[in-house]
Write a structure and sequence with these properties.
Elements: H1 13-18, H2 21-26, H3 29-49, H4 56-64, H5 71-81, H6 84-95, H7 109-145, E1 150-155, E2 158-164, H8 165-189, H9 203-208, H10 213-226, H11 243-271, E3 275-276, H12 296-310, H13 313-320, H14 331-356, E4 360-361, H15 363-377, H16 379-388, H17 393-413, H18 420-426, H19 437-440, H20 450-466
Antiparallel strand pairs: 1-2, 3-4
């Protein structure tokens, strides 16, 4: 429970209200500054292994104090020095007096700053990917269950040829599968900045190793390996290229666009009363209208997805203005845009998992909507049946045209039901095919290969994508708010 003073200042709702504990921790000060200390330990270990005068006792002292950060001292040091990295160098040195002379040896601030950011990006993707896999899994189960349930298709949000509930879910799944591949690619493409010095030339390390280029290269490789990366960028300025941030955040913004589309569809279908998101037993939909069941989870996803997409402008502009080897106008922006993108994606996926685990389908409502529109859609089938029974296509077409317009007038002008079928049955002209009308109006004859497409898509493209995440598939989401 937050103390009373916490309610006297702004708190980001991304943390206080929405995001998971693991993602909030990933971008926390504790994760950041303990990672800085680990990076200083990696550097000292590698420098020692390559012959610099660093002792086992110094390394051991650093390791024993990797976690016990005096945040108050660091804040006071930063207030005096106006430099966050040096403030933490001093704070670390205070509890590691023997190691103080070799902490941060040869490094620039971006050694800890940028490398930590890359670790946070990597770990952020590792939190998001299983969550996205679970959303895909839940939707795949939903698509499979309703693969052959006919429903009105909509183009321009006007009734169109029938599809199935499961086939429509596969449209959502296809976009999410693309997002899964994009996130995985962005994660796997991340490299470490490594040990590059103040302008990326490694000059300070070349001096430390007295001109030995091989040792400088090995230092870079060793630290990269200790940090858990397979590769480091071969060239950097003072920072890693800010296009890396573009690649990472663009995959998240693209996910945001996908989720906004899916949840908008769910909101539209909720209005039609065909599909609803989960609704808790004591949940209140409206303070004034007790009967309402608003799609608040889908609305939340849309609201946050809009922010996620909007954040994409930040890394694009930041990368474009990084003069020469770097400027510092990236720093404040990235403190906001990088964590917020991952925190926003995190709660969107948690919410969407909750939605997809409890989607409610109302087949009778769907069937009623089909009945209202199907007679119009079946006119071509009726014409073809009449021709087979010996009728003239043009004559039949004109008969159907007149009856359709009369039925449409009843629907639009009088608010009545679609009575086209009754008009066809009452017209002696159609007597030869009256026995076929039920078959001609069977919704399952209007869905084409939708069920087969669902089965093939799930087996060939969706299920294989989920294989690496099987061990994390059973986690369920309970939303507190």
């Amino acid at each position: 429970m937050a103390g009373a003073d916490e309610f006297m200042k702004y708190r980001s709702p991304l943390v206080s209200r929405y995001a998971s504990k693991e993602m909030a921790y990933n971008f926390s000060d504790r994760k950041k500054f303990t990672t800085w200390r680990k990076l200083w330990i990696y550097l000292a270990k590698a420098e020692k292994a390559l012959g610099l005068p660093i002792t086992d006792a110094q390394v051991l002292e650093m390791e024993s104090h990797a976690e016990d950060i005096d945040f108050a001292m660091a804040a006071e040091e930063e207030r005096k020095l106006r430099h966050d990295v040096m403030a933490h160098v001093h704070t670390f040195a205070h509890c590691c007096p023997a190691a103080a002379p070799i902490i941060h040896l040869g490094a620039t601030s971006c050694y800890v700053g940028d490398n930590t950011d890359l670790i946070m990006l990597r770990d952020g993707f590792d939190i998001l990917l299983p969550k996205l896999a679970r959303v895909i899994d839940r939707l795949a189960n939903f698509a499979e269950k309703y693969a052959d349930l006919p429903t009105l298709g909509f183009t321009h949000y006007q009734p169109a040829q029938l599809t199935t509930v499961g086939k429509r879910a596969c449209l959502w799944l296809q976009d999410l599968s693309m997002d899964m591949r994009n996130l995985q690619r962005a994660r796997d493409d991340l490299r470490f900045r490594g040990v590059k010095g103040t302008t990326g030339t490694q000059a300070s390390f070349l001096q430390l190793f007295q001109g030995d280029h091989d040792k400088v290269e090995e230092l870079d490789r060793m630290v990269t390996d200790m940090a858990g990366f397979k590769k480091a960028y071969l060239v950097t300025g003072q920072t890693y290229s800010r296009k890396v941030d573009i690649d990472s955040l663009s995959s998240l913004a693209s996910l945001g666009a996908t989720v906004h589309k899916i949840c908008t569809d769910i909101r539209l279908l909720a209005n039609l009363k065909e599909i609803e998101e989960p609704f808790e037993k004591e949940q209140i939909g409206s303070s004034a209208m007790p009967y309402k069941r608003n799609p608040m989870r889908a609305e939340r996803c849309c609201s946050l997805a809009r922010h996620l997409v909007a954040l994409m402008a930040d890394p694009l502009q930041t990368a474009s203005v990084q003069w020469l080897e770097r400027t510092l106008d990236d720093s404040a922006n990235r403190r906001i845009s990088l964590p917020e993108s991952f925190l926003t994606a995190d709660i969107i996926l948690s919410t969407l998992q909750n939605v997809t685990e409890g989607l409610v389908v109302y087949p009778k409502v769907i069937e009623r909507h089909i009945r209202h529109e199907l007679p119009f859609m079946a006119t071509e089938n009726i014409i073809m049946a009449m021709v087979k029974a010996g009728g003239n296509r043009q004559d039949c077409h004109e008969k159907i045209r007149v009856l359709s317009q009369e039925a449409a007038a009843v629907v639009k002008q009088e608010g009545g039901d679609n009575d086209l079928l009754a008009r066809v049955q009452a017209d002696p002209y159609f007597a030869p095919i009256l026995g076929q009308l039920d078959a001609l109006l069977d919704p399952k004859t209007f869905i084409g290969r939708a069920p087969q497409q669902v089965a093939r898509f799930l087996s060939e493209e969706v299920r294989p994508l989920l294989e690496p995440y099987k061990a994390k598939m059973d986690i369920k989401i309970e939303l507190e708010l």
